[in-house]
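The methods section describes the discrete structure representation at length, but only in general terms. What matters is that the chain and its backbone geometry are given together, residue for residue. Nothing conveys this as quickly as seeing an actual entry. For illustration, here is how one protein appears when written out as sequence plus structure tokens:
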Amino acid sequence: MADLVIAPPAPAGRSPASWRGLWIAPPLVVLAAIFFYPFGLIALQALGGGTDSSTHTLTLANFAAVLHSRQFLSGLYHTIAIAVSASAGCLVLGFVFSLVIAFVPFPGARFVGRLIDTFIALPTFLVALAFTFVYGSAGLLNQSLMTFFHLSLPPVDFLYTQWGVVLSEVTVYTPFIMRPLLACFSQIDNAQIEVASSLGAKPLRIIRQIILPAALPALLAGGSLCLLLTVNEFGIVLFIGAKDVITLPLLIYGKAIQEFDYTTACVIAVINIALSLGLYACYRTVVSLCGGRRAALG
């Protein structure tokens, strides 16, 4: 017969559940100090209240003015266009590269897979710097072409456009697609592929009917994460300095640091935060649905 374990009595006047509930207080205090309080000041400034609400009237007039300004609409358009284009490029390239690494045997495949983890840890501006050295006006490619063909102007100038920003972000964030895809491909039973191939199925049919359905949850989760990250990308856009390409993060920086228009900067920041939280909610929803689907299939 098992020995009985008698728990020590709880302190008088307070139950163990109430003591455990106090552990939530320190994280809430830290979160309030480093997030809620600064965000509250930003929201108060955006609503026209400043730091002293007794001398200001809270109003939505600042939001109305910003939402109707051409500069904000242009920034919102560039932010969404770049984020969607970069996320689509990441999905396509990530899927193709992951297929090659996972299902096409070649020397060094394992090393390439490990290298992806290292690439994720690198700061984003390094890619923009590398692209500037290679594709910039004074980069290796332009200097070589100008010398070889005796040109007076750089023939390659896509880097300082919206597509240069998209290409840089695709290069940076494609590993965020490949990492979950490679993990997903490692769980696919190779017997299914071998049986389908022995029955005469072509590679494209195997990809469409076997690999793609299994990879769909990873694609959706990775694509949602890339969309969230590219919407808030600041370093690449600032470092490349693309002409007439102003995104919301860059617009906030310009209004606050260069023009000292803190009210407009706070309004745009609140809108950008709302957009980011909405995308994050979509990302969490997709991850939860994908997890439920995997559990149901498993």
Summary: DSSP finds 13 helices and no strands in the chain. The radius of gyration is 26 Å.
